[in-house]
Amino acid sequence: MIAERRGDPVDEALREQLAAVRYLDLASTIARAWQEPDEWIEGVIASFDIVVIDPLSAVASAIDLDFDKSNADYVRAFDRLVQPLTMRGVTVPIVENIGHAAEAKRRAKGASAKGDRADLTFSCSASANPAGLVIRAQKVRSVRASFRRSGGPIIARPER
After folding, report:
1. Are residues 87 and 24 in the same domain?
2. Residue 101 and residue 84 in one domain
3. Please, which of 28, 33, 63, 90 could form a disulfide with 40 given CB 3.0 to 4.6 Å?
4. What is the pLDDT of residue 157?
């Protein structure tokens, strides 16, 4: 378990937090969210503090859009499914493998990271000395989406 490896206590409090975590099938969940965005937004806000979308390409497939050819498609999806959540305090990390080409390392996807609404982009490269993986985060936007601070890690609110 990751908690043990980090030295965190595996106790009842951690078990309660983990009991609140839900895995949802991305394809069916996003397809329904696209059809009923108001229901999606209200359901997520009522049940979760964090929603992780992984991978982003599955979102495009589920709602039959092409994020690689059209930033407008991505922005439309982001504005309909993600932005209403972040504006109401839900954190929504979006994960996608953007590729390893040099020109892809400084953009979220498509032609413009700013147009894609990314706050941060990440790239990685191998390091020989010391041996390892170097991970770089770059700030894309000067104004962040809304977020919430707490006294500790937020995994998810229990379903109500």
Report:
1. yes
2. no
3. 33
4. 40
* Alpha carbons 76 and 78: distance in angstroms, whole number: 6
Q: Quote the mean pLDDT of the chain.
A: 74
Is 78 contained in some domain?
yes
Q: Rounded to an integer, what distance in angstroms lies between the CA atom of residue 110 and that of residue 71? A: 6
For residue range 46-67, what is the model confidence (pLDDT) as tens digits?
999 888 888 888 888 999 998 8
Q: Per the domain annotation, does 156 fall within a domain?
A: no
Domain span including residue 101: 97-140
Three-state SS for the chain is CHHHHHCCCCCHHHHHHHHCCCCCCHHHHHHHHHHCHHHHHHHHHHHCCECCECCHHHHHHHCCCCCCCCHHHHHHHHHHHHHHHHHCCCECCECCCCCCCHHHCCCCCCCCCCCCCCCEEEEEEEEECCEEEEEEEEECCCCCCCCCCCCCCCCCCCCC
